[in-house]
Design brief:
Blueprint (H helix, E strand, L loop, with lengths): L4 E6 L5 H10 L3 E7 L3 H10 L3 E3 L11 E4 L6 H10 L3 E5 L6 H14 L3 E4 L6 H9 L5 E7 L11 H17 L3 E9 L8 E8 L4 E7 L6 E8 L2 E6 L4 E8 L9 E6 L7 H15 L7 H25 L6
Helix pairs in contact: 3-4, 4-8, 6-8
Length: 323
């Protein structure tokens, strides 16, 4: 492998252009090209970072060693498989694909070709999440809210695949237990797909998670609250902060327990930068990435089950859904 890893970004819209920015900033990377079906937008990003522009990703096969796939989800499987087949490491944005069958093929191909397949669950690289993960020992209850202001992007998928999938991945990672029951409701508000959803998950170890996701909120909110025996943690993804509240024994006989509040020490860092650095490192050393294809598939499977539960509830409640 060359001293500088030859990289490219496929799809340079809202997310992809940020991938291009990060690759361009890394000394260990050479941003060879960007690809997008939008010629004007693609040329703009290419010129900004001194990269080649192409409308057809196939032209890059054999020319690069690592790529980010930030296309609409409908194209993830096709584009990712083409690069994996060519022996190119792939960081594919979440959700990994539209279906479990597509995800399975992507995972099998990465294993067969012995190349890195990483899924872009970016919150895993949030310093606040990483600090929280080090603290948790036996979480019993999660309360998650991921609220976004309505935009015209990602309308090819619903809010479960767009936003809730983050929390499904995070909570499944923190519990380390299998989901045994899911209840969910959701409704379309501004689109024909689900814009607001709530899910309740029960895990085999007894842990419970309540997740709300909205892309039609009046404000942006990304928070996770976790309860374990005698402790409560409040994580703010955007601020990269974790508040800790611990119940301490009474200091004297007959006194009540006290709640001591503090915060975790966190060094703030851009999650996307950390994510891409981790991906490039995995490609360079051909090691297992932080977020594997199997973990991306796990999050997708949970999201699909949430959607199935929403659909079943909507039929019972006589709500018309188009997905």
């Amino acid at each position: 492998m060359s001293q500088k890893i030859k990289t490219a970004v496929i799809g340079v819209g809202h997310l992809g252009k940020e991938h291009a920015r990060v690759y361009h900033s890394l000394e260990q990377c050479d941003l060879v090209a960007v690809c997008d079906t939008n010629e004007s937008g693609g040329h703009l990003i290419a010129e900004k970072y001194g990269a080649r522009y192409t409308k057809d990703y196939r032209e890059l096969l054999g020319e690069v060693e690592a790529v980010s796939v930030a296309t609409p989800t409908v194209n993830h499987h096709e584009v990712t498989c083409a690069f994996l087949e060519a022996g190119v490491g792939v960081l594919v944005e979440k959700p990994i694909s539209r279906t479990l069958e597509e995800a399975d093929e992507m995972i099998r191909l990465a294993e067969a070709k012995n190349v890195v397949l990483q899924v872009g669950h970016i919150e895993r690289f949030n310093p606040a999440f990483q600090a929280l993960q080090r603290e948790l020992t036996s979480p019993k209850f999660f309360e998650a809210h991921r609220m976004g202001i309505f935009t015209m992007r990602s309308l090819d998928i619903d809010v479960v695949m767009d936003l809730m999938v983050h929390e499904l991945d995070i909570i499944a990672t923190l519990t380390g237990s299998e989901v045994v029951k899911i209840e969910a409701v959701g409704i379309p508000i501004l689109t024909q797909k689900i814009d607001l959803a709530n899910a309740r998950l029960e895990f085999a170890n007894g842990c419970i998670a309540n997740i709300t996701a909205s892309r039609v909120s009046a404000e942006r909110l990304r928070k996770l609250r976790v309860f374990q025996p005698n402790e409560y943690y409040s994580l703010d993804y955007a601020e990269q902060q974790v508040g800790v509240f611990k119940l301490t024994p009474p200091k004297t006989a007959g006194a009540l327990p006290e709640i001591v509040a503090q915060g975790l020490d966190i060094t703030k860092r851009e999650p996307l930068l950390a994510e891409i650095e981790s991906f490039v490192s995995a490609v360079s050393a051909n090691t297992v990435p932080v977020v594997t294809g199997a973990e991306g598939r796990r999050a997708l499977a949970l999201a699909i089950e949430v959607l199935d539960k929403i659909k079943a509830h909507s039929v019972h409640a006589n709500i018309n859904l188009s997905f």
